[in-house]
Amino acid sequence: MRGLDELIAAAPTFAGLSQDQLRLIAACAVNERFPAGAMLFREGEAAEHFFLIREGMVALEVQAPGRRLVIETLQRGEVVGWSWLFEPYRWQFDARAREATAAVVFDGACLRAKCEADHELGYQLMRRFAAAMTQRLQATRLQLLDVYGHGRPG
Amino acid sequence: MGAAAELTRPRPGPMVPASFTVTGKRQETADTWTLELEPRDGARLEFAPGQFTMLSAFGAGEVPISISGDPGGGPLVHTVRAVGLATAAICAAKPGEALGVRGPFGRPWPLEELEGADVLVVAGGIGLAPLRPAILALLAGQERYGRLRLLYGGRAPDQLLYTAELEEWSARGMEVAVTVDSAGPEWLGHVGVVPRLVHRARFDPDSAGALLCGPEVMMRFTVSALAQAGLTSERVRASMERNMQCGTAHCGHCQLGPTLVCRDGPVYAWSELERWLAVREL
Amino acid sequence: MSESASHTLERQDFDELFGALARRGYTVVGPTVRDQAIVYEEIASSAELPIGWTDEQEAGHYRLRRREDAALFGYNVGPHSWKRYQLPPEVRLWRARRDADGGLTELEPEPRTAPRYAFLGARSCELHAMGILDRVLLGGAHTDPADRARREDVLVIAVQCAQAGNTCFCSSMGTGPTAESGFDIALTEVLEQDRHYFVLEVGSERGGELLGELRHAPAGQHERAAASAAHDRAAAQMGRELDVTDIRDLLYRNLENPRWEEVAERCLSCGNCTMVCPTCFCTSVEDVTDLAGEHVERHQRWDSCFTVDYSHIHGGSVRASTRSRYRQWMTHKLATWIDQFGSSGCVGCGRCIAWCPVGIDITEEARAIRDSEAVGDARP
Fold it and tell me: pTM of the full predicted structure?
């Protein structure tokens, strides 16, 4: 099995980090497996971690009375969760493994401390999370447009 | 019937429809049906993937509808969404009843140009309908192409077209990824918009070609995701929708900048379009 | 045109033309006064021509005025064009009986029995307009036999302009004022102190045969000079101009020019310009049934890009604003037409200027856009 820093380096989100930086963040990470149906986190809980999916699929969900809605699904190479970065460090959604999922789990408090101590690392991580968030925000906006509701007749 | 059929064909010209009989009908979604049609005079309507016909329920009007059948043979197939008077009347036609068909019209998907390359088919909503003939042709000749991949997005699981066939295409060697804008937990596919699938798809950006059809907004976002992945707009082909009324480049309604969609489209290289699509209300 | 092809026809013999055309089975369509305008209708003699009338034209203005002479063709152009005969305002494409199963039987394309027309009085700009419409309707991959039939066998007797209107700009568009081809016979009307005659040029074999039935004489030097002076007068009187240098790219560069906003404040989106334009070809179709639904007909009618529905696609109209519709019309005429059909869509007849209820002037709009670039360049 590859080292954690190699796994992290292979993810698009972390591409371009220096070996030192990779080692620093790998020191805050562990490997974990989630069977199908397991919860990665739940809405309202303290957001102490984030996840880099290695295999499988994770669904972000919202519970409403009588139903459960899937907001988005995430896959290999994608990052789940950024609530650990911002106060009040609480999850806004549920995250569930839709299938057996392997993920690198990062300790948020550990990383936040390292970012405070090493602003260059903090900047590099922030930049990468901002890019991922932008992509997801744009996708969400497109989702909001409900484009298929006004499509052509055939 | 025979005598009447003869009567119907004195120099008809492109504005006069031919009668086709509805021979098969399948409901795809709450408002969308797939119709199989056979010509009453026996001559099969030859077409290339990406072309459309002008389809009419006699008396209720005429609309441009992409051809969804197999270019290799079989009936004329149209998948139609009931959104107005004419389309509602077309969708209401029962087997045995007749519809009017003119065409085929328009420029097809340039499949021969994609030989040797990975092909990414990206469809949104009913946009899968004009892509179905291309998918069937790609699968029939798959030894001539690289990796075939379909990225298909819909509003919700019950809004997807050709659901049984999606599995068949996958079994025949096309990688099929389906995503919906929202779903309940029973849906096991992706949730999210089509451009997100592009970010995840692997293809050779230097040689791959993409075929797109869906709402214009979805196509714009998809093209930008493809560009981020290194696929330039010259190698993205899109099928456009405008108000085609004649199909023969005579009525003016389907103008898109310096082009007429019924003649120069509906399939364009995105690079031909981007300048014009950037102008609002053009 | 070789000199030997010039002939004269005296005014008192002009009606021989109607006789000769009638003998050959032609229905003559020519200018006549109707509702205070000179329009094209079926006519049977020179008495129905607009004798002694001229038209006064300006932006948003068209008035008939008496001339001091009895000229037959002493006007410019009216609200009609020959488009009405190439592409009639409304045609039935076909009719059929609808069976119980929805199928059509006894489907009849419209019979192609249009009259055999002779167009009398077509001007140079109009000949060019006919050619442009022919390229649109007959020059593509699909042609409607009905459109083709309407153009077969049409005989054209052109009239060379001896004056130009204030709204004319055919010189700019390269379409006039003097016709060089596209006619069977071209007439130049000459009014002298004591003589009223026409100088004829023959443009086809058919025209030559027709000429043979008229009492004519070879044109002498004086008559040829008189005709030539008339042509020069029209060229000199040209009321407007439109600089077409690089016009396509000029407009493509200026699709977001603020000028579109300004013109949209005046434009009523009425579509008059498209109705009077001799090349505007847009049509829409409509199915018509009887109450029982047994008989179905499909009708094709002139449409206009100034209507909101024109660009309708499911979900809304592509061009919802007047700004976008005026821009569509003008850029189509002067720019996209070139890409679509290989020539400009404008012949400089000036009808859209005269018949615009608020006097919007395509030459002024084109100039404003060109000038806006010049101003831009002059800035440091």
Answer: 0.90
